[in-house]
Automatic annotation (TrEMBL), chains A, B, C, D:
Top-rank EC class of the record's enzyme: transferase
Domain Phosphofructokinase, first and last residues per copy: 7-284
Subunit structure: Homotetramer.
Name of the protein in question: ATP-dependent 6-phosphofructokinase
InterPro entries reported for this sequence: ATP_PFK, ATP_PFK_prok-type, PFKA_ATP_prok, Phosphofructokinase_CS, Phosphofructokinase_dom, PKF_sf
Enzyme Commission (EC) number: 2.7.1.11
Control of this protein's activity: Allosterically activated by ADP and other diphosphonucleosides, and allosterically inhibited by phosphoenolpyruvate.
Pathway(s) the chain acts in: Carbohydrate degradation; glycolysis; D-glyceraldehyde 3-phosphate and glycerone phosphate from D-glucose: step 3/4
Designated gene of the protein: pfkA
Biological processes per GO annotation: canonical glycolysis; fructose 1,6-bisphosphate metabolic process; fructose 6-phosphate metabolic process
Cross-referenced PANTHER family: ATP-DEPENDENT 6-PHOSPHOFRUCTOKINASE, PHOSPHOFRUCTOKINASE
Job of this protein: Catalyzes the phosphorylation of D-fructose 6-phosphate to fructose 1,6-bisphosphate by ATP, the first committing step of glycolysis.
Length: 328, 328, 328, 328
């Protein structure tokens, strides 16, 4: 065990995700379990620079496991991109006698953590908290499962009105670079078509497919569109195009937006967050640094930051086939 | 009892609302209870014109009380605005031996029903089914309570991310002419400000108020905007205006859209729908026509169509005061 | 305005109900609005005796409107039944310069509040917070609407498994003396039979009815049982009786229990709580005391404690008829 | 490809689970995709014996992906345990020109399917549908994820009232032989203690632990109890024991029961069901039989029935440690 570590700081950074509170709670309680002190940093790296720290013990985090958002708040920090900012942050950690840092967030967070950790030879471990599931080396990121459930519940509601009115709905979900949310929620919600950044369907093929479904007897349809998809990027324009060319339907657009980031985390995300928090403290005590704690095939694993950040997740071809078959 | 009535038709028309299925089910079962035949009409008045009828008995409507949307589907019918269309509709009713009609919908539905009923001296009773709660003579319309719960659940999620990031969110809810959904969901969701069509706040007053709240220590805010509000009509423009003038916040927009029309109805809406369906069949058997069945002070009442349509509901000043006090 | 009142205490007492936090929040913010001080009392009357007070300002109650339970906690107090206990409570109010009390709870709470208020000539106003909806003089109590939704969501789930297996389910819901929850949730959930304390159906009639339904083609059934119903009191025994006499079904029992008391309040309960809290502070400032703030026909009203407690609510015959017709 | 297979039958058997409808739908649509006919069998093996078949095409299964339960219904069949019953079943399959069977269920289902398949040399593929997650060779069974979410949502509600009243709640969840639901939902719901069949804690150790927590400042507690746990089997007795020995708390019991089997499936379960249904049809066309389609490390896999049934899943020691640390 790393005897040097007596006090751990924990922060959340980047876009918030359901389950971040559960992850903070886990880091705090795992610290208490190992009789370490724990301190929370508000507003991610920016709060570290500005010295916004709060002492946290096992009781401080009660009734947080089920709360959406992050009570430590999150922010993106421009100051942390500059050495001057990072030096202030380091000074604040030292002033507060912090020996190690757990950073909960996505690839931006891990990039910042890597630079910071190497610059000051400071132990840093990351926990993947983002709804986008776009981190390499972990099967799931905290918040992703909850976001999927939020999306399908919303689309289930939209389907009620779609099928009452023989309408075609374009539903935009999050995913600037990754189609995971669109693809999984599209299958889960029984979407007719799913448009993702990784594949450019083209408007002609989309139209052909919609016409075919209409002929096969479908009277209403849901199209799930990832915000980063080529033809779906301008979703209003796409809707107009379809409406013009497919007059049998009344075409409507719904952009789900920020409801996807909130809500009480699913059981899966709460358990995942609890496991990764414990794993993060274990790793620090074991002398590890510059790694992310993830989950692979149901086991907690340690992944170098470089791998977590740089690798590119590929879209699952099997899922695309399943989506195609389901919308027959 | 009106011995003439042996067969009742039921339809849903206009915008769909959660609880419409429960209302159809109630009309069907109340008909069965009184040993009347019942027939459903697809797609509202349009289906009546096109002769889309389906026989419904007590078992046909099982497992529908909890379903969103309307399994009879709904539509707006231009043909029904012309005498020719209505004559076809009347002929179809006669051909199917229908003696009376129950029309579930909003003011457009009741307007059509009034004209049709008078034109052919045909018994018609209405049931208020619309999320807008904008019908005179009934305390609540079917679907309104469910829509309010859908809105606050969505805003609860948005608040998670708003308070994690110190953001100001503009959330657009339904309500082209009526601010009921905005006002009630705004209070329920703890909104900072609520913008409704009935009151023009003006951008200056809004800005003053937001600045005051910020000073009072609020770090994130939700503004609920009815789609018909004067300054909120162009919600993107309003967001830009606020962002320009209130740089402390990051301003974001979410348009809830059609999720507000769907979902499994609340208990209140299911019970209301069940009561009004029974009341509609009772009224027809009692020889009544050209009335809407509503609820006032927990009692089922009968209201002339003219009153239901023409009266204008006023916004509740007490609620506006409560909203002001809650956002102190 | 009552210039004497400068500081208000607020407490929750008796069984907890969703929306109690929203009611506390409203009393606190209405106090702030009128520039009064506000103090919370933990654990109801018991905390008043033991001097557990906490200062509350407008910011103390942020993010509470959507929380179930009561952050001031609740308890039943035996000590408050004795003069000695009440004298201690009064002394603590004086010591804390409290000029008036708002008590949120049910009839037990109002009974205690009446005695206390008269004994010490101390201004007390009540707010009805109980899931049972068994208070006279108000159309709804805070928490009732939420409890109904919790019950129907649970029964919707049970119906999935009931209809998958051709089972008959007895579902016990709260209601020792009042059948309101059973009757409304039974209609909302599409129950076959609803057993309530106000009516003794008798096992023979129940059995006859179930046999009739089975013959009419129903393959699964839900019976909603209020815990205080005559034949449903011993629900295991009732299940055995039905199983013995109706072997076509597999009979199962589910007791919903305490999940009915929890959960995020519905929009209706949040708005009701907000309105009643404002009404309570208004009433105190207006020199009123020994009254409950309720809602009748959508208006906030003031009701003497005596009326609220002693009156007996009757079960709505129309609802019983609707329930009968719906289960045809 | 197995050219022999032109018609596939699908059935659900054993305890129902959320997502079974999504699995049926997937088998039906995958059949349609491969231009095979598909027929549903009602009530599992019993319906196969009694010849209850229904033709299913791609449109028959619309709007089923989000429905709880199983529209094909499920049952346990004693007749299928006898050769005579199975011979009738086989004759019915032949009469309906069925070439292969997909059986959705748990270990009982697979045991029956194995015997049947070998007896008549009939192609059978299984899909794991059970909330218990007690099948070997698949990381998850369909329905398990949904059940976990149902449990934590219920416990979240119970916690509201537990913490309002300083109570200790024993919450019984499903799991006669396997503690997976208890362990995961216990961590997810922030339980103080989790009692599972795989570990016998003993009442003394439980009591010690509860006393320690009380001293550490906890004022309310949730204990999650799997129905098959040694000391939790008689949950009423356990509650009495704790109440007698730990008088500071008020001890309450809630048995969640059959709500755990119902409800709209989670996104994970819908996607899993969709993938496994496609995998089952693929396997049959590929000439495979006597296997279960499962998921391992995010990939669809084929597992011999023998392995799926006989293997014993071990409880995850890491999860037990996480649970211990979280309840510090």
């Amino acid at each position: 065990m790393n005897k040097e570590i007596k006090k751990i700081a924990v922060l959340t950074s980047g876009g918030d995700a359901p389950g971040m509170n559960a992850a903070i709670r886990s880091v705090v309680r795992a610290s208490a379990y190992h009789q370490l002190e724990c301190v929370g940093v508000y507003r991610g790296f920016q709060g570290m620079i500005e010295g916004e720290f709060v002492d946290l013990d096992a009781r401080s985090v009660k009734n947080t496991v089920n709360r959406g958002g992050t009570f430590l708040k999150s922010a993106r920090s421009k100051d942390f991109m500059h050495k001057e900012g990072r030096e202030k942050a380091y000074a604040n950690l030292k002033k507060n006698n912090v020996d190690a840092l757990v950073a909960i967030g996505g690839d931006g967070t891990f990039t910042g953590a890597t630079i910071f950790g190497k610059e000051f030879n400071f132990p840093v471990v990351g926990i993947p908290g983002t709804i986008d599931n776009d981190i390499n080396g972990t099967d799931f990121t905290i918040g992703y499962d909850t976001a999927l459930n939020t999306v399908i519940e919303a689309i289930d509601k939209i389907r009620d009105t779609a099928s009452s009115h023989d309408r075609l709905f374009l539903v935009e979900v999050m995913g600037r670079d990754a189609g995971d949310i669109a693809l999984n929620s599209g299958i889960g919600a029984g979407a007719e078509e799913i448009l993702i950044p990784e594949e450019d369907m083209g408007t002609d093929r989309l139209l052909e497919s919609l016409k075919r479904s209409r002929k096969s007897g479908k009277t209403s349809s849901i199209i799930v569109v990832a915000e980063g998809d080529q033809i779906g990027k301008n979703i209003g324009q796409l809707a107009d195009f379809i409406q013009t060319n497919l007059t049998e339907y009344e075409v409507k657009v719904t952009v789900l937006g920020h409801i996807q980031r909130g809500g009480s985390p699913s059981c899966y995300d709460r358990v995942l967050a609890s496991r990764l928090g414990v794993g993060a403290v274990d790793a620090l005590l074991d002398g590890k640094s510059h790694i992310m704690i993830g989950v692979q095939h149901k086991k907690v694993v340690q992944v170098p930051f470089e791998f977590a950040i740089n690798g590119e997740k590929e879209i699952d071809k099997e899922l695309i086939r399943v989506a195609d078959i389901m919308s027959i």
